[in-house]
Amino acid sequence: MEPLPEQWQRGLVIAAHPDDIEYGTAAVVARWTEQGKDIRYVLATSGEAGIAGLDPAESGPLRQQEEIRSAHVVGVTEVEFLGHPDGVVVSGPALRRDLAAAIRRHRPDMVVTMHHGLTWGPGLLNSADHRALGISALDAVSDAGNEWIFPELREEGLEPWTSRWAAIANPTPSHAVDVTATFERGVASLSEHKRYLEALDSTPVEEHARRVLDMVAGPIDGFDAAHAVGFELFTFRG
Questions:
Q1: pLDDT at residue 47 above 70?
Q2: 185-194 b/e (C-beta count within 10 Å ≥ 16 → b)
Q3: Closest of 140, 131, 135 to residue 97, by C-alpha
Q4: For 120-173, how does the pLDDT look when each residue is reduced to its tens digit (9 = 90+)?
Q5: Domain spans of the chain?
Q6: How far apart are CA 66 and CA 105, in angstroms?
Q7: Over 111-162, what HEC string results?
Q8: d(CA 41, CA 35)
Q9: What's the rounded Cα separation, in Å, for the pair 142 and 144?
Q10: pTM over 0.90
Q11: Domain 2-235 adopts which CATH fold?
């Protein structure tokens, strides 16, 4: 298990919903911002369909604010919401265009996004939004560097940009990041999603967050760290 490359300066994390980044990746982000890296977030939706019994018109703004606070905990101040409908995110040209535009706007060296496989493991279905977002984000890294795909983006002042790497949060990783030193900041970041987590079960929010981080950022076979997060790494340029 190799460490994920860290010889870069700007990163863009792309996810489907508020709280997605906080299930492990935020602890990685905390490590990177402590290194002085410039990390930014792009969310396809506002998570408006994510809280049972709470109208989307109220839930969306609430979840946006939880995400912004959560991002601040790990040193991220730039958070974009693209406005795609929560629960019915569609993988296709419209989403790819919006994500390619974001990549051209932010010009990251490293793009981090979500696992797009059907499952997280036996019997653990990955959500439709996660699957659609993950594959579209990976495609958008290529799209962003091609002047002939979405040529209207150049007319909007967004010149092509090819990121060097994309890292996909993956249950069968090729690379890992040691988050032992930033594990607690990861817990604190997830805990900012207070209203959302309270709707999931009656466990106290911080206890719930710590339990989750113990599962998703625990030891990884072949990697010497008490807490680590795994990724599949793709290289787009040398």
A1: yes
A2: bbbbbbbbbb
A3: 140
A4: 888 999 999 999 999 999 999 999 999 999 999 999 999 999 999 999 998 899
A5: 2-235
A6: 24
A7: EEECCCCCEEECCEECCHHHHHHHHHHHHHHHHHCCCCCCCHHHHCCCCCCC
A8: 17
A9: 5
A10: yes
A11: Rossmann fold (3.40.50)
DSSP strand pairing (175-178 vs 228-235): antiparallel
Nearest Cα neighbor of 112 from 122, 120, 121, 102 is 102
Q: Which DSSP string corresponds to 32-86? A: HHHTT-EEEEEES---TT-STTS-HHHHHHHHHHHHHHHHHHTT---EEE--PPT
Nearest to 58 by CA among 69, 71, 46: 46
Contact 132, 114 (CB under 8 A): no
Residue 12's Cβ-count burial label (10 Å; 0-12, 13-18, 19+) is buried
Residue appearing with tokens 């996660």? 130
Contact 144, 163 (CB under 8 A): yes
141 close to 103: Cβ distance less than 8 angstroms: yes
Distance CA 221, CA 191 (A): 27
Number of residues that make up the chain: 238
